[in-house]
Amino acid sequence: MNRQERRVERSGEGQPRPDAPALVTGATSGLGRSLARALADRGWTVLVHGRDEGRCAEVVDELRAAGGTAHPYLADLSSLRETAELGRKVAAEHPSLGLLVNNAGVGAGRDSRRREVSRDGHELRLAVNYLAPVVLTHALRSPLRAAGSAQVLNIGSIGQSPVDPEDVQFTRRYDGMEAYTRSKFALAAFTFTIAEEYAADGIRVNCVHPANYMDTTMVTEAGVRPWSSVAEGTAAVLHAVDEGARGASGQYYNESRRAKAHRLAYDAGTQRRLTSLTDRLIAPAEGASGPSW
After folding, report:
1. Interatomic CA distance for residues 101 and 225, integer angstroms
2. Which of 73, 130, 174, 180 is catalytic?
3. pLDDT the model gives residue 212
4. Which of 76, 139, 258, 266 yields a CA-CA distance of 20 to 30 A from 284?
5. What segments bear the compositional bias annotation Basic and acidic residues (predicted)?
């Protein structure tokens, strides 16, 4: 066991064994897989989300072989309807949910000039990195409330660019890296938008930038040489989980430090405009019940 792995393991010392499960999206590789393993080591029942059945089963088997409890959940988060169905399935099978980690994401891609779209026709990074977490968080609010002191943890980025309300789908002068940073700005703003309301339900909502350019497929696909490890990112996420367990909410963490997100992510007018835009985009997936922020 190396020094970084020991640091991740020690970060769970003294933490109570959770009674309700944790759902980690994008848990079949990179940070998500490492985090699923770390949470299982802490005693969490881990709901392992992925797109590929084989890879999902592999992670579940790995956690169970190490003495943990884990269950697979398949969904393509580039489809908002499939994302909503994932939320409904988890809620039906686990009426109490202790932790939701919105980790799944899409980076800048191999060719940052190539604009990609989701299955619903949305710009891909906006869809997977932002709209899907919003839909999933909405769908799981009831089981999170039932847990009594649950958490939503959004995996953000230090790179944040305000969304252009006149071109939310980024159809003009597209750049994959900016599309990524726009989606992460939106995710941070969503965190701060819902934190106070969800606190009334006993749900803490925070956002964390785990580390700079971790050694993940997302980073290597973008042609970037990694600066840090997944183990370092995992330690930062666990620190944010511990902060939430102590009552922190509406916070942004840069690695293991409380920090400030982009100033406009806290702006009430920006939040209202983004909420209105988001409501229209996700309405077809959420059905007649409509958004519930």
Report:
1. 26
2. 180
3. 80
4. 266
5. 1-12
Q: CA-based angle 60:56:211, to the nearest 5? A: 90
User: DSSP characters for 114-132?
Assistant: ---B-TTSSBHHHIIIIIH
Neighbours of 47 (CB within 10 A): 27
Tell me how far the alpha carbon of residue 268 is from its chain's centroid. 23
Burial classification of residue 226, based on how many CB atoms lie within 10 Å of its CB (0-12 exposed, 13-18 middle, 19 or more buried): middle
The answer to whether residue 180 is catalytic is yes
Domain count within the chain: 1
Predicted pLDDT of residue 226 = 64
Report the CATH number at residue 163: 3.40.50.720
Tokens of 179: 């599309």
CA distance 162 to 32: 26
Domain hosting 124: range is: 3-11+20-289
Confidence (pLDDT) at 211: 79
Residues with pLDDT less than 70, the chain: 1-17, 213-227, 288-293
From CA 184, how far away is CA 230, in angstroms rounded?
19
Q: Can you give the pLDDT at residue 239?
A: 98
Q: Which long-range contacts (C-beta less than 8 Å, at least 24 apart) are formed by 64-67?
A: 66/37, 66/40, 66/41
Structure confidence at residue 5 (pLDDT): 38
Residue 259 in contact with residue 150, Cβ under 8 Å? no
